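pinned: reference chain
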Amino acid sequence: MIRRPPRSTLFPYTTLFRSVTGTDTGVGKTEVAGYMARMYSEDGFRVGVMKPVATGVDGPCNDAQILKGSCASEDPMDYINPVFLRMPLAPLVAAKKEHKKIDLGIIWDRFRELSTCNDLMIVEGIGGVMVPIAKKGKRTFYVLDMILRMKLPVIIVARPGLGTINHILLTISAIRTRETEIAGIVFNHTRRIERDASIKTNPALIERLSGVKVLGIMEYNRERNKRRIRWLRGIGHYEDKGKISYNRDRKPAVS
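pinned: its C-alpha cells
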C-alpha cells in the first residue's frame, strides 16, 4: 500500500487520466507518455504513471523506469509495472511459454491505488490496442479491454510517414468498436526522415478522414531528453494548403 495523502490539495478538482497506445510497437509511446508526465509535473501536478504489462524483461522494464523518472514519481516500481515477463512476445504468448498466469486483478488494484494518490494518471499500453494480454475463460483480453476497464481516453502515438494512414485508421476503428473515447493523435519522429512527402499531408488527411484531432508532433532529436512535442495552436484547424498551425507554448488542456 502507498502511504501518502490522497491527491494534491493544490489541484483538488482537476484530474487528467489518459492511456497512451500506439499503432504498433516501437512508435515511441514511452517518449510521448514520459514527455507529458514531465510537462504536468513541472506545472505542479502530482503525476502517476503506469506501464501495467511489459515483456522481454527480467524485472520492472526500462519504459517504466523512464516514466517514473520523467515526473520524479515516488510510487514504487511494483505498482508502476506490476506485470513483467521474460520472453519478448505478446503477453498472452509469453505467459503461456513461461508457464505463468497474468494476474489482471493486481493491475486493477494497483491502478486504483495510484489513481487515489495522484492528480493525474498516464498509463502506457504494450504494443497496439489489439495485443492480447490474457485469457479469461474462452475470452481473450486485449490491451483495448484494459483501456476500457480503466475508463481511459486514448492518445494514439503513430509514425509520421508513408503507411501510417492505414495503421491509424485501423487503430481508430478498433477503439470505436468499444465506444472508447479517443483524445487525439500524436505523431512521433523516432528517427530522421527525409524525402517523404506524406509527412506534410498525413496529419490533415487523417484528421479529415477519421474526425480525430491531431494533438501535435514530437520532433526528432538525436538526444532523446531534448525531444519536444509541438502542440497545435487550434487543434483540428488547418491553414491553407493543409499546413498545420503550431504554438510551441501551448499544452493540452486539463479537464
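why pinned: The two ends are 28 Å apart (CA to CA). Residues 5-15, 233-250 have pLDDT under 50 and may be disordered.
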